């Protein structure tokens, strides 16, 4: 089975919804991604945490089979994010981002990880994403995710990394912001023109859109009656997507479409509970059952 290498934020989040507020909960793009991807293939996690990061949170990841040998602990504060959601529980308003120890982190991929076949550059400084990419020997598939914070501050570096990856996942609002167009199909085509072979635009409750040179595929979100915390939906989505690709060992258009269904289902588990709890508790049987349900949603 191929390995998946991921780098991205490992964080403590303070999340507010109109109904609940939780402080200091385990978050970060790389945490959500790993907990989803481990349902499909072995995951190697890279990131940096400060001395305030609870050992028990690293243990949670390890207990789910995630290889944390690439997680560095240094003196300082861990990444912290404070976000708020409105009643629609869709768009996060970032109130504060504190990069902490990620601010000047120079990642070095452990020798044992450089043979990873699947690489996910989760949401973090584009310079870190680029530096990671340069150190992996011969990746089969590299995917990337980002957000408005980096589009606003690091557009050039981000564009450079995007042009070097195979798959870009990005949410609808951020695709519009990055491309300067309201139309999501046109935005996806613009990103495709930078070089990736596939672009996935995540549209929260409206699902996800996949665009390749030859194919457009669209799935609705898995229908949930209760969403508690949308944080990490995009990262869990990417975990299901890349996990399924690694498990299948191929990246043709048909496999990509199926991977989008798996990503969608992983996201549904993530948003059902606060923090990483939902995706941490998910198992393969549950994921497969929801994928089957999702497939029947639009076939009459
Ligand atoms: P998502 O809801 O999928 O966009 O991901 C939310 C996660 O991303 C949270 O757990 C945050 O800790 C993390 N996050 C928020 N802002 C950033 C940022 N600028 N760079 C990297 N990670 C971030």
Quick summary:
This protein is α/β, with parallel strands linked by helices.
Please give a structural write-up:
With 300 residues, this protein is α/β, with parallel strands linked by helices. It has helices at residues 29-37, 55-63, 126-135, 148-153, 155-162, 172-179, 184-192, 233-248, 253-271, 277-281, 284-297; strands spanning 4-7, 11-16, 21-27, 43-49, 67-73, 79-85, 92-98, 118-121, 141-145, 167-171, 198-202, 208-212, 216-219. It has a nine-stranded mixed beta sheet, with helices on both faces. It has eleven helices and 13 strands. 38% of the residues lie in helices and 24% in strands. It has one domain: UDP-N-acetylmuramoyl-L-alanine:D-glutamate ligase, CATH 3.40.1190.20. The model has no long low-confidence stretch (mean pLDDT 97). Bound molecules: adenosine monophosphate. The site of adenosine monophosphate has 17 residues, from strand 2 and helix 8.
How is the secondary structure organized here?
Layout: E1 4-7, E2 11-16, E3 21-27, H1 29-37, E4 43-49, H2 55-63, E5 67-73, E6 79-85, E7 92-98, E8 118-121, H3 126-135, E9 141-145, H4 148-153, H5 155-162, E10 167-171, H6 172-179, H7 184-192, E11 198-202, E12 208-212, E13 216-219, H8 233-248, H9 253-271, H10 277-281, H11 284-297
Parallel strand pairs: 1-4, 1-8, 2-6, 4-5, 8-9, 9-10, 10-11
Antiparallel strand pairs: 2-3, 6-7, 11-12, 12-13
Helix pairs in contact: 1-8, 3-5, 6-7, 8-9, 9-11
The structure holds adenosine monophosphate (AMP).
């Amino acid at each position: 089975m191929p390995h998946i290498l991921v780098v991205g934020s490992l964080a403590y989040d303070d999340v507010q919804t109109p109904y609940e507020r939780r402080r200091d909960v385990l978050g970060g793009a790389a945490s959500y991604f790993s907990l989803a991807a481990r349902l499909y293939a072995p995951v190697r996690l890279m990131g940096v945490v400060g001395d305030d990061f609870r050992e028990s949170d690293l243990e949670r990841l390890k207990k789910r089979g995630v290889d944390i040998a690439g997680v560095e602990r240094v003196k300082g504060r861990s990444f912290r994010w404070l976000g708020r959601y409105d009643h629609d529980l869709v768009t996060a308003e970032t109130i504060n981002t504190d990069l902490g120890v990620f601010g000047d982190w120079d990642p070095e991929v452990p020798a044992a990880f450089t043979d990873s076949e699947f690489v996910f550059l989760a949401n973090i400084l584009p310079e870190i994403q680029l530096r990671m990419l340069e150190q992996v020997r011969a990746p089969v598939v590299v995917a990337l995710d980002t957000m408005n914070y980096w589009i606003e501050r690091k557009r050039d570096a981000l564009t450079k990394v995007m042009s070097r990856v195979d798959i870009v996942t990005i949410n609808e609002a951020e695709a519009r912001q990055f491309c300067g167009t309201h139309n999501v199909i046109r935005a996806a085509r613009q990103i495709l023109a930078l070089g990736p072979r596939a672009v996935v635009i995540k549209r929260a409750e409206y699902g996800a859109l996949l665009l390749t040179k030859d194919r457009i595929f669209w799935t609705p979100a898995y229908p949930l009656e209760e969403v508690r915390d949308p944080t990490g939906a995009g990262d869990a989505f990417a975990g299901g997507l890349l996990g399924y690709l690694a498990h299948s060992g191929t990246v043709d258009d048909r496999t990509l479409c199926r991977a989008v269904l798996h990503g969608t289902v992983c996201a549904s588990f993530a948003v059902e509970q606060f923090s990483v709890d939902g995706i941490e508790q998910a198992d393969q049987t549950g994921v497969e059952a929801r994928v089957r349900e999702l497939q029947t949603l639009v076939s009459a």
